[in-house]
Structures are given as structure tokens and as C-alpha cells.
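User: Predict the full complex structure for these chains.
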Amino acid sequence: MIRRSLGLAVPYLFIVAFLAFATLFMVAPTVMLAAQSLSGDNGITFEYLQALGEYRYIVAFRNSIVLSAASAFVGVVAGGLIAHTVLKPSAPNSLRSAVTSFSAVAANFGGVPLAFGFVATLGSLGLLTQGLKSIGIDIYGMGFTLYSITGLTIVYCYFQIPLMVIIITPALQSLRVEWREACENLGATPAQYWRMVGLPVLLPSLFSSFILLFGSAFSAYATAYALTSGNLALLTTEIGNVLSGDVMSSPQTGAALSVGMIVVMVGVLGLSAFLSKRASRWHK
Amino acid sequence: MKRLGTGGWVILALAAIYFIGPLVLTVIFSMWEGRGHYGFDSYVTLLQRPNIVSSLVISVELSLATCAALVVLLVPAMVFMNLYAPKLRPVFEFIAALPFVVPAIALVAGLSALFTGPEWLIGTPFYLVIPYFFLALPYAYRAIDVGIRALDLATLTEAGLSLGADLGQIIRLVVLPNLRTALVGSTLLTLAVVMGEFTFANVLLFHTFAVLINEVGQNAPTEAAALSTLSFLITWLAMAGVLLAGRRGGVQLSGAR
Amino acid sequence: MRDLPSFTLSRRKALALGAAGLAGTAFGGRRALAEDFKAVGSPALQAAAKKEGALNVITLPRDWANYGLLMDNFEKLYGVKIDDANPDGSSAEELQAIRSLKSQSRAPDVVDVGPAFALTGTTEKLFQPYKVATWKEIPDDVKSADGHWYGDYFGVVSFGANMSVVKTMPRTWADLLKPEYKGMVALNGNPLGAGAAFGAVFAAALANGGSYDNIAPGIEFFGKLNAAGNYNPVKGTTASLTSGQTPILINWDYLNLAIREGAAGKTDITVVLPENAPPFGNYYCQAISAYAPHPNTAKLWMEYLYSDEGQLAFLGGFAHPIRFNSMVAQGKIPADVLKNLPSADAYKNVKFATDAQSAAAKKTLADMWPKVVKLG
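Assistant: Here is the predicted structure of the three-chain assembly.
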């Protein structure tokens, strides 16, 4: 009995230690931020939160959510496929290591260097653009532009896909080959295997990865700014303008926008938990 | 299982083009010396910069310190939360998502207002480990979360307990080895996050590697491209090294068995 | 460390560019100015500074307004070590550094911020007052009466173009709308966040029927530029102008000229002030941190920057020093230098938007810009 309760003290200690650390250094500043969004010159005011209803902030919310969701979705699918391909037992070891280590680096290759590389490739005067033009395909003439949600999604995938590869690898490895063989023995096609065994097992991890990729795109700033100078309204660039710009300074607006972002993120977490629970009701 | 089929190779080929394209163009620009000449001038000038080694050292030290902090503080907490306090999951998920939505400069402002001392901590670059812990947290948390979900933690623990092991032994001998891949992934991501982190170090005026990259980028464009290329290569080699070290320790970064 | 760039290329080319071109390098180059520095400040101040032995500066890029030379020279003249942190930071980050680092030995001693931030810093009591020896020559509208902040140099909006991509140099605002410049014209950031970009919109307003009280025509101009497909939203930088990714960059004159000098030998960049339009300028402000770990060195630095030689050094970096008009009147600018600048009258007539006008313009900009300049 005593051993049992002593045994539980240590685990709870670790949990409490982590939560205390997080509260002190992360949650406390966040609360300050929330408080700042409500503080006007004469005490509490809702004007900054209300200002979030302005046209350009609504556009920023919409753009950020769409961009993050789209790049997260593409990242999950493409990253999952690539990870699956290199994790097959028939894939050479060196390929696996090369892809995994490259993914670790590319997952954090962002900001100005990434923007520079893509403008050089797909910008209006980029190499690929000019190359395609010379064989008769004028992508800018057809309406494509790198400086749009579509363009940004393409650029964001550069770090989203590798991120997915890294994250999903342990989950893919946990799919026992015996299950696959058992399915085949029972006459199932690969598609049926995936539909009834593979994907359901992976589903919680897929949701988890989606949240990470969404958050990663949602919080991206430097890449988007380098490509569009903030002309494509996004929450992060709007915050950047008011918090760390050279022209105007409005910490309360920045705080209000951050509160907005927190709400969106909590919404995504909640939605994901809800969907995940429904999906796993018939699993296990 | 069949060999890596044509489908597989097509996927990889497309991926290769997409990922290597922008890099190739960056490398080409880094070798541009004006008026159609190409060479390694920028690399030579770059390596003669005085701060390049010291800033790299600081960044690497910070990466390792952050990894250590995560392993000590985060991993046990997550394992125990899954075992004994699953109701706390939403709290963990919320904390793990916060760093995405609190702007760096706001976090700096908040931390600076709340914590004005002690000087021995705040004055050294190692003060950065605190915000870096949280910046890497979303990635590390998810990596380990996926790893934990792939295990049947409760059964493993119960089996171990019924065989007479205590909690410490179970963690060390059963849980952690099974989490090896996830831990490697989380280490890789943490290293990459810290090496690339710029805003905090910059606002607090510490001279890290990412800060140097940005400085170079402002007034020496070809050197900046050279630096991006070099840092990409160095980081890639380091990651490969981490993977190999993991493999030698008995870890299989093996395919789905 | 990199050598200072060579000047031989620019002189002939600069004269050939004509009156509208800016020929900053013609006055003997930066090297000559260095030898001419006389020590400033009282002996007591110099001694106190030497004892402190160090100076922490922040957000001073080496190729911005000749700060590289100014810093190197200060170190040599007074035996003091300068630590130059976060060269590419923004004014907001400078103030945050003062708040975060308070009196740590790494804290910044002096800052160089935009006017709005100079006011914020004064309100938050982040600065200590100081009046340099040449205080009276600083115009009243660009300094605080009690000495908390004071303008140091100003620049005007200019066009910089990479001549390997651009065949004909655009000379007026209307030129920018021509179809030959499709996808070429960029700013150095968002007008709501970057000082030079904000200045560009204001300058466009002045050229298209607006005024210091009315920035709307400038926003509409950029709307037209965007609709025509000529506006390139990529953030313009040294790299993007030199590589040709943003072949035309609207930026402060001293920045475009510095980029041109840095690219000498690699690619040709032409810099002009827009013709047939009133110049729009803006200035930056110096201030000493209230928590400066090296207050005496900070004061000596200020005396140094506002001395004749310091101000001429700014001019050597293509930025017009704040004492420019009074120095011209006193004949302190060498004649050959004056000859190669666009008429000093043009700069004498530079007016700055008042704080109220700036604030009103920002509000209009915040409302109108996202509606008028839209990306796909």
C-alpha cells in the first residue's frame, strides 16, 4: 500500500514540475498578453478586441486559417506518402537516413533563404517561370502567382512535408507487418488493408500531426513577409507590423490579435479531439 | 514485400525536384561573383568572418542544453500523464500549442517584465534555454506523443509491474527503448529549431548562429546565400550523425516490420 | 573584415548619370574624411569615456549612413571598444532591448530610432537628456526641447534599379507604371511596418496631387501599380536588388546608394531622385539610454556624431546630416562636394511630416491599403 502511494508520488512530481515550469515561463506571459489586449489608457476596454472585426483583420484570419489548413493537409498527405515509401523494408537503408536527416533540416529551413530560393525558381522573373515561358507555358499569364495563398502553400510545403515525415515515422513503424500479412492471407487487397487496419490505427497520429503542421504554418512569419511584405494579410504579419515594426507601435492591438490566434488554435485542438474521439470509437 | 516499386521512385523523384530546386538556385547565387563569373569567393570571405565559429559554438551548446531540458522535464511528464493522469491531456495539448500563437517579441516582453534577475542567468546566453524549451515544445511534444500512441503503454507498464519491476526500471528498460525513434525525431527537430531560432536571440542581443546569418544577409547577399548553403550542409551532416549514433546503440530506423 | 569598397567605378558613371543622379562618392571618398577627424568633447569627458572603455550600440548596419566608418574611427580615436548588436533590428526592438536589459553590461547605451519611437521612448522614460555642443544648429522641429532625442540624419525617397535587368531607368513616378516594368517595382517592406516603404507611399502621394495631410493619392498610385502587374510584393533587400529579383527598389537614397556601392564590380545599379516631384524625406533620432552602462562614452559618441566631421561622415554615407542646411550656410561643406550633389536647394526644401500628419497618414494607410493593394 505504502509502496504504491510512494510509487505514485514520483510520477506526479514530474507532472507537476513540468506544469509549474510551463506556467511560470509560458502561461504567465500569455496571461499578461491577454490582459494587455484589454488595457486601454483608462482601464479595461474592449476596443482592441472589437477592432478585430475590422475588414483587414477578418481577411487576415481567413487567409491564415486557409493557408495553414491547406499546407497542413498537403503536408500530411505528401509527407505521409514519402515516409511510407522510404520506410518500406525494401527501401535501402541509406535512402532512409538521407531522407530523414534531410527532412530534419528542411523542416526548419524557412524565412528569408527559403523565400529567396522560391522567388529565384517560381517568382515572376524566376528560372522555372522563364523556362516554362520559353516552351510556351506562361504560368503568370495563366493567373498563377507565387504571391498568393496558393503560392504560399507551395512554399510552406517545403517545411511542412519534412516535418510530417519526421513526426509520422514512429507511427508507421508501429504498423506490424504481421497485420498486413494476415490481411493478405484473408484475401484483402492493399486498399482494404489500409481502409480497415492501417488508417484507423494511424488516425490519432494523423490528427496529432495535422495539429502540429497547422500550428507550424499558422505561426510562420518570416517566409510570408519576405515573399509578400505583408500585402497578403496574415495574422502573423499584422502582428509584426504593430509589435516590431518601424512605423507604428500598438502593443494592445498585437495582444488582441494574439488572443485571436489562441482562440483559433484552441478551436483546432478541440475540433481535432472531437473528430479523433469519434473516429476511434470503433477502433480497439 | 516487393521492391520499392516504380510508384515509390516516382514519388521520390518528384519530391527530390521540389526540394532540391530552390537549394540549387541558392547555391548558384552564392557562387556568383558578378558579370558571369562564378567561384568560391563568397565562401572564402565568409569563413574569414570573426564571429562565425563562436556563434556556431553557442548555438550548438544551446541546442544540446535545450534537448537535455526537454528530456528531463517533458518526457517523464508525458509518460506519466499518459499512464496516471490522462485527464490532464487537454492541459498538455494547450501548453504545447501556445508557443505557436504567442508572438516571440510578446514573449520576450512578458518574460523581461516578469523576471528581472538573477543577473548570472539573465546575462548569459543560457537564459535562452527557457524560451527555446517552449519554442521546441510543440515539435517535441508531438513527436513523443505519436511515439507513445504507437505503444500500448498501459499494458507494457502493467506487465512490467506484475513481473516485479519498479517504475524506474520500467521507464528505463521498457518505455524509453520503445520510444527511441520518437526521441530521435524529437531531438532532430529540437536541434533544428534552436539552430534556426532568430527572434529571441536577436531581441535580447545574443550572438548566435542564426543572428549571424541574418546580419550577413543584410549587407552581403552572396555571402548570405553561401552561409545558407553551408548551414544546410552542416546541419544535414549533424542530423545524419545523430541518426547513425542512434543506430549504433541498437536502434533500428527500420522499415515497418 | 571586408575592405571598404573601391570608388573608381562610380565616379565617371555617376557624373555621366546627370544632374538627377546622386554622386556621393565624388567628394574624395570616405577614407579622406577619416583623417580629418579632430577629437571632440571636453578633456574630462574624454577621460571618463576612456575609463569606461566600451560602447554598446544597436541596430547600426555598417553600410547604413557610413556607420561602419564612424564606428571604426571612434574606436581608434578614443581607445574604446564598440559592440554593435542586432544591426538589422527595428526601432521597436531597440526600445525593447532597453526595457529587457535595463542596466546589464550588455544593454544598449545609445539608440537610433524613428521619430514615433523617439516619442514613445521619452514617454516611457527610457532616455536621459543631453545636449551636444552644436545643439543650436539642429532645427527645432526635429529635436525635443529638453534634449531627450534629436534628429541625426535624413534621407529622401529614391529609385534604385539593377541595370542588368532594367533597360531604361525610370525617372518619374508615372514612368513606373509603364508596361516594360512589369513585376519589377518593389518596396523594402510593408508601408505599415517599414519606414522607407511608408515614405515611398507618402512620396507618391506628394507627386500625385496629395499633400502631407493627404496620403490617399499615394495609396491609389500603388493600387494602380499593383493592378498593372508592376508591383512586386517581395520584400526588397540588398540581395533582391543585386540579384535582380526586385530590379527596381524604392528606398531611402542612402540605402540605395550603399547597395550600389556594395554591388560595384558585380552589377550596375542606378539611383535617382524621382523628377518633377517634391522630395519626401524622413529622419532618424539619436538618444542616450536612461540605463546606459557607459554614459560618458555615450555622450562622447553624441559629440562625435554631431561634430562637423561626424556630420560630413554621414554625408559620405549618402545620408544628409541634420545640420546640413546650417553647415551649407556656414560654408562648411567642401565646394566640390556640393557641386556633385543635386542642388542643395532640393534638400533645403525637404519638409518632414509632423507627428500629427504622420499619425493621420498611418491611420488612412491602415484602412485603405489592404483594400486597394490586393494580392491574388
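The mean pLDDT of chain B is 81.
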